[in-house]
């Protein structure tokens, strides 16, 4: 099955659903930058590498709360699906952050090491792909 019925369909532009999906991903990426770089406190980032520490839990809870508007931007999720998505985001985000912090600390990497920046980059990539998955779940399920 082709995604485009004919080359002329490309000229018609994306559907309203496609625009809403893109807007949803854009919102989640902006939300992520805000929650990670504006709202995150020293207490949170210093403690994300300690499993179960309230600092990491509070950080992830802020992300989950700020994710909820995406359900108004991208319609289609039932209350149950929204709860499942938010719970999954909590678990995935928490463990991505925790694993990155553990790796960086165990290896002793600092901002002076390229491996530190590789870890940061893959952490951010994992979060971005999570947002693509969230919007896909809303639209497809």
Q: What structural keywords apply?
A:
single chain, 141 residues, mainly alpha, 7 helices, globular
Structure overview:
It is built from seven helices and no strands. By secondary structure, it is an all-alpha fold. The chain has one domain.
Give a short summary of the structure.
It contains seven helices and no strands.
Helices and strands, in order, run as HHHHHHH
Largest sheet: none
Taken from the alpha-carbon principal axes, the silhouette is globular
Residues in helix, %: over 70%
Low-confidence segments, given as residue ranges, are none
Number of strands: 0
Please report the number of helical segments: 7
> Which band does the percent of strand residues land in?
under 5%
Q: What would you call the structural class? A: mainly alpha
Radius of gyration: 18 Å
Number of domains: 1
Beginning-to-end CA distance, first to last residue: 20 Å
The chain-level mean pLDDT equals 93
């Amino acid at each position: 099955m082709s995604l485009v019925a004919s080359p002329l369909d490309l000229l018609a532009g994306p559907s309203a659903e496609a625009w809403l999906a893109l807007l949803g991903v854009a919102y989640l990426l902006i939300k992520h930058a805000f929650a990670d770089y504006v709202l995150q406190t020293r207490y949170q980032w210093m403690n994300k590498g300690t499993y179960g520490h309230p600092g990491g839990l509070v950080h992830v809870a802020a992300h989950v709360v700020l994710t909820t508007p995406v359900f108004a931007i991208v319609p289609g999720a039932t209350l149950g699906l929204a709860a499942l998505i938010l719970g999954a985001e909590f678990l995935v985000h928490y463990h991505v952050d925790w694993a990155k912090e553990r790796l960086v600390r165990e290896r002793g990497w600092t901002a002076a090491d390229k491996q530190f920046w590789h870890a940061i980059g893959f952490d951010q990539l994992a979060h971005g792909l999570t947002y693509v998955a969230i919007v896909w779940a809303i639209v497809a399920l």
